Amino acid sequence: MTQDELKTLVGQAALQYVTPDTVVGVGTGSTVDKFIDALAASGVRIAGAVSSSVRSTERMKALGIPVLDASEVESLQVYIDGADEIDRQGHMIKGGGAALTREKIVADLAQTFVCIADESKLVDVLGAFPLPVEVIPMAAAQIARRFRAMGAEPVLRQDCVTDNSCRILDVKGLRITDPAAFEAEVSQWPGVVTVGVFARNKAGVCLLGTAQGVKTMTF
Ligand code: 5RP
């Protein structure tokens, strides 16, 4: 099966976590696009979706799925989103699509984060994928120096301004053995908007697309 077919498989499988007439949190990316398409095709009626990006909002509206503002809901049963990496405890790296800040906000509203990913995303230790960090533009150089002091290699993502008018540093060369401690530390640096480690808001479930079918991991 191709990676695209695995994404279609898990996008479809995520429908089992959608309760009709509830509000669903919806992430961003090519895997989530498959979920959005599956949701629209399923005919399951939901009360609305809270979206994590302009990209997902536009796709859902085009397919007739009502989109609500995050401030209109107090909590969500589920948040369904992809990941760039996920470890065997449900910690993730996210932000490859530059939507990490809104993704963390919507994930924080949800009781359960359902991660949908193809098997190439499963890792033992986070960090092979360059870690996205959204930063206030005036702090980018200062934050880059802090990462260099840790022995890592930050690269300012070219031609990328986020939905929040900020920039992204992609940080190579990290080996994140304690995701919760790393997230807590970097989140405190002045000018960091969001670090793409999701440990506090880690996955509760991962639907992993494999050649043998969808494997469900719970954490
Ligand atoms: C966007 C994300 C995505 O979930 C992540 O990049 C995975 O994307 P894809 O499903 O296209 O592989 O964090 O900010």
What's the CATH topology name of the largest domain? Rossmann fold
Number of domains: 2
- The largest beta-sheet arranges its strands as 3-2-1-4-7-13-14
Instruction: Please give the count of helices.
Output: 6
Give the low-confidence spans: none
SS strand fraction: 25-35%
Distinct bound molecules: ribulose-5-phosphate
Roughly what is the average pLDDT, rounded to an integer? 98
Q: Under the CATH scheme, which class of the largest domain?
A: Alpha Beta
| Biggest sheet character | 7 strands, mixed
| Gyration radius from CA atoms, angstroms | 17 Å
From the N-terminal CA to the C-terminal CA, the straight-line distance is 26 Å
Strand-and-helix sequence, N→C? Answer: HEHEHEEEEHEEHEEHEEEE
Label the CATH architecture of the largest domain.
3-Layer(aba) Sandwich
Structural class from helices and strands?
Answer: alpha/beta
The 3D shape can be described as globular
Q: How many extended strands? A: 14
Question: If you had to describe this structure to a student in words, what would you say it looks like?
Answer:
With 219 residues, the chain is of the alpha/beta class. It folds into two domains: 3-122 and 200-218, Rossmann fold; 131-195, 2-Layer Sandwich (Alpha-Beta Plaits), CATH 3.30.70. It contains six helices and 14 strands. The strands form three sheets. It has a seven-stranded mixed β-sheet. Helix 2 links the parallel strand 1 (23-26) and strand 2. Helix 1 (3-13) packs across helix 2. It is globular. The two termini are 26 Å apart. The structure holds ribulose-5-phosphate. Ribulose-5-phosphate binds next to helix 2 and helix 4. Ribulose-5-phosphate is lined by residues 27-31, 81-84, 94-100, 103.
